[in-house]
Design a protein that fits this description.
Elements lengths: L10 H9 L4 H13 L1 H20 L9 H19 L19 H10 L6 E2 L4 E5 L8 E7 L8 E3 L3 E7 L2 E2 L4 E2 L4 E4 L4 E2 L2 E2 L5 E7 L3 E3 L17
Antiparallel strand pairs: 1-2, 2-3, 3-11, 4-9, 4-12, 5-8, 5-11, 6-7, 6-10
This protein binds zinc ion.
Length: about 230
């Protein structure tokens, strides 16, 4: 695959991802980005090698006898929650195409096990959302779809937002973001994303606080003004 990504997670995020200490929502987005980005995969490989060298030089640590069982129990219970919630797929016109071949494996797995509904939910005339249940208390993890040429309202951020473009492209005042690009919005950032004219754009996103409208007509953005970590 040709590496077309121009926007990457920073070095510290990759170090934490490699060490397994990056929190879940950010890890989901980094892992999706890695699918598209050979540059970050190479960096990660080096970090993993350094990490395993450090591990091999350190003293062995005592681990509880049932540690492995505890991890497996957590994974099993997460699967049970999700499979009971994903059986209500109906309307073909708004359903999510789960066989989208360009999607990273981690995203397909997330869609198959954690998606609350297989149907898109309308946020505005240009944007649909589909939320995941990931066991997160601090981040809403979701797919967002912007229609071709669709404008989102201009807004500010009060928390962190990680975004990975999975399909198509969008732009804002600063740049054009294409498949695989990884973006991190910080508190205080203001922008107005717009879908490309040549087709819909689907992004994976993790948001820690609702966005804040910058227009006096911001009350029209009501569906946007809350997040649902779950
Ligand atoms: Zn990268």
């Amino acid at each position: 695959m040709i590496n077309t990504t121009n926007h990457h997670p920073d070095e510290n995020m990759l170090i934490e991802f490699s060490a397994g200490t990056l929190e879940t929502a950010a890890s989901i987005c980094v892992s999706a980005h890695l699918h598209f980005c050979s540059r970050c995969r190479t960096k990660l490989l080096r970090l993993d090698q350094v990490g395993s060298q450090i591990m091999s030089q350190s003293e062995p640590m005592e681990v509880a006898d049932n540690a492995f069982d505890q991890v497996m129990e957590k994974i099993d219970s997460a699967d049970l929650v999700s499979s009971s919630k994903t059986s209500s797929a109906t309307s073909a016109s708004t359903s999510i195409n789960t066989s989208d071949e360009g999607f990273p494996y981690s995203v397909k797995k997330l869609i198959n096990t954690s998606l609350i509904s297989k149907n898109w939910k309308r946020l505005s005339s240009s944007v649909d959302v589909a939320r995941f249940k990931t066991g997160q208390e601090d981040f809403e993890v979701a797919l967002h779809k912007i229609c071709a040429g669709g404008k989102t309202p201009k807004h500010g951020h009060e928390g962190l937002e990680y975004t990975v473009v999975l399909k198509g492209s969008f732009s804002d005042e600063n740049a054009v973001y294409r498949e695989g690009d990884f973006l991190m919005r910080q508190p205080g950032d203001v922008h107005q994303p717009m879908g490309a004219q040549n087709g819909e754009c689907i992004c994976l996103s993790a948001l820690s606080a609702p966005i804040v409208p910058t227009s006096p007509l911001g009350f029209l953005m009501k569906p946007w003004l809350r997040i649902n970590p779950m």
